C-alpha cells in the first residue's frame, strides 16, 4: 500500500452563502459602516445586534440593495455581486422582510404572497388580456403555508387587514421564504408582537433554518436573539465589535460588547 492510502479524508470546508468584505458607507461626514465584514453560512441564523446608530440598518441595506456601499465587496455563493437596488438582491435569491412588513392590508393572503410577482393565466387570456391566475396563486399560497408549517392561516382568501399582527408577520415571512432561494433577512420580526405571536414567528425562523435556508435576524430583543441565533454579529460605531455565539457568551456579555463596556 502507498502512503497516500493512509491519508485521512479531508473535511469539506463550509462555503458562505453570503459574504461581505470591508464594507464602507458614509453619509457626508457621518460614517455608517467602517470596514464591516460578514459571513452567512447555509442553514444558520445570524443575528445582528447593536445600539441605535451602530450601523445595523445601513449594513442590512447594503446587503439587500437598498443602499450601495462606497467600497467593499459582496459575494453570493462565491460570485461577486453589485446590488444597486433591492430587485438586484432578489434576483440573487435574497428576500427581506422589513419592520413595516410592506403588506397590502386590502388584499387577501394569497395576493400578498404574490405581490409584485403575480402569475397570469396560460394562453391568450394571460398573454393578451393579462388575466391573473387567482385560483392557481391561491392554491400555491396554501401549499407554501402548509410547507412552512403555518397553521394560523387556514383561509388564503381573507384580507390581510383582518389578521392579527403575528399573522401578518407570518404572511410577510412566508412571502420571503417562498421566493428567497438563498437568504431571508428579517428586520425586527417580533417587534410589537405578543408573547404567543412572537413564539410563532421564532418557530418560523427555526423552520427556515431547518430547511437549510440561512436567516439574518435583526433584533433588539436579546432573549429572542439568544433563543434562535447560531451566531451573533455585534455592531458598534459602524464597525463589527465581535461575532459571538450563545454558547460562548451570555446576554450580559453581548450587551457589554455592544455598549463598549467590554471586548470579546
From TrEMBL:
SUPFAM superfamilies: P-loop containing nucleoside triphosphate hydrolases
Pfam families per UniProt: ABC_tran
Record's keyword annotation contains Nucleotide-binding: yes
UniProt KW keywords: ATP-binding, Nucleotide-binding
Keyword flag Nucleotide-binding: yes
InterPro entries: AAA+_ATPase, ABC_carbohydrate_import_ATPase, ABC_transporter-like_ATP-bd, ABC_transporter-like_CS, P-loop_NTPase
Annotated ABC transporter domain residues: 18-262
Molecular function, one GO term: ATP binding
Residues of the signal peptide: none
Family matches, as Gene3D superfamilies: P-loop containing nucleotide triphosphate hydrolases
Name this polypeptide is given: Fructose ABC transporter ATP-binding protein
Name of the gene encoding the protein in the UniProt record: frcA
